Amino acid sequence: MAWAEEHEADVLVLPELCLTGYPLQDLAWREDFVDAAVARLEELAAASGRTATLVGTVARVPPQRSWDTRERTVSIAQAVLCDGEVRGIYHKVLLPTYDVFDEARNFASGRRPEALWRIGDAIAGISICEDMWSDDGPPEAQAAAGAEVILAPNASPFHRAKVEARLELASRVARRNGVPVVYVNCVGGQDELVFDGGSVVVDAEGELVHRARQFEPDRFCLELELEKHPLRVQATTVHVRRTRRTAPLAVAAEAPADQISDVEQVWRALVLGVRDFAGNNGFERAVIGLSGGIDSSVAAAVVAEALGPGRVLGVSLPVPETPPAAMADAERVATQLGIDHRRIDLGPMLGAIGDALAPERDPEIAARTEVLARGRAVILGEIADEDGRLWIAAGNKSELSIGGAAAFGDVAGHYAPLKDCPKTLVYALARWLNRETEMIPDAVVRRTPSLRARAGIELPPYSILDPIVEGYIERGEGVDRLSAAGFDRETVRGILQLVDDASFERKLLPPGVKVTRVAFGMDRRMPITNAWRPYRREGAELAPCPPDTEAAVAAPWDPVEVGESA
């Protein structure tokens, strides 16, 4: 606010719920939390000066639904502060209930989409995030009522292709209504969500005027030329006590930030997500299991960038059967990243497990992949507890989708940076990291990946697996649509079966950064107890898909058992 005053701004626009944080989830139901937000807003208002300031917060409103037993409910609001007081409040009208959003459960909607604000000589409309995404929402009502500019505070979480969608949205709203749009987004990590900033300003023709930096805090000051529109409704007046400016701004805005590449956006989202999760939850150091594979190598690189190499410990946990080359690669990864490295022999522990279970179970149980993973989890968990470290799980979305990670083993940890990254994207990140200097050893990147699902079923190459999983998870496509897209029908049926059968294991996953449109967790909420399996067919054998240059298929699918009808 002081910075805006210094630069003689007429209005300062801050993101949605910037005072409280976003998403609030059930904090919105905590009376003490809402009381604190109301009190803090009054303190900010008392400190306000000539510049009108839009602060995202919560506001108390009367109950609107018969089932709501609270005396007062809350709305998502944008308070307008000026001259030492709260001059008015706009209440968010459209409350999303899709993807990661659940706002209609926790908030009441506003009732005045056409509300306008006279700020100095300008008539402004305020539309909060979802208010912008309807073709017949508050911006249309505000422009029709006489708004000359739309101020749009947002808390818009990142996923791939979201940046282009936001710019197109702002441009479409501006063109449709003939007014500039100031779209301001927040920055930071909140559990599974990362908010990437990248605020944009477009003129009345929808052309880009300014783009802020992504994944880091940014502020900018712009002079917008507004076309006068006839005022058709009364506007709340916010006086700005200065004459119309004739000289240029005290500080000119920087040139619009360049649009960074898709892979770099993912990398920076992962780093920001880990950094803020660790910092905001009291972790200064981290531990990760280093196997010499691509997943643990890339995850370690993310954590080293987020926290600093000196705060990261990589632990290799070999057994007698572990290839020496894998351990050598793990050591090279640690050296390249500059992180500490420790090697702990897992053989004695697994031997004890086998001895304990041998009277009742197969004496070779200790050699099973699942037991190895759980043994490693025990060691890593103890190191994390002993040293107060953030325990990093390295699983990727491809494996987590089809049950390729052992429950209470590979998926164990405090945070999983690559949880929403398909395997093909993990390799793309490794290649991007190595574009100038070899951060991930070439031997790790070139090694042919292998993946076994439950019951020993061999899987197709990731170049085939990942698009099928993407179509099923992100777009809800079934066997018919995926087959029509060119994928082998029986291969599709087998993968969809594995995805659904792994629902229980996915409920055990730690949080991780959302980078795709539909991530496991807040996005996709499927019941574990679920008999809907339309792809199962009695007596069918699933044929292997043809090999490609990335990996070879070793065996056909196992026969698929028939389940009860849904």
Account of the 3D structure:
There is one protein chain. The chain folds into 2 domains: 2-242, 4-Layer Sandwich (Nitrilase/N-carbamoyl-D-aminoacid amidohydrolase); 264-451, HUPs (Rossmann fold), CATH 3.40.50. The protein has helices at 2-6, 31-46, 103-106, 138-145, 162-177, 262-280, 294-307, 324-337, 347-357, 369-387, 397-401, 423-433, 442-446, 462-475, 479-484, 489-501, 503-506, and strands at 11-13, 52-61, 73-82, 85-91, 116-119, 122-126, 149-154, 181-185, 187-190, 193-196, 200-202, 208-211, 236-238, 286-289, 312-316, 340-343, 390-392. Helix 6 crosses helix 12 (423-433). The longest helix has 19 residues, at 262-280. It is an alpha/beta fold and 566 residues long. Strand 9 (187-190) and strand 10 (193-196) form a beta hairpin.
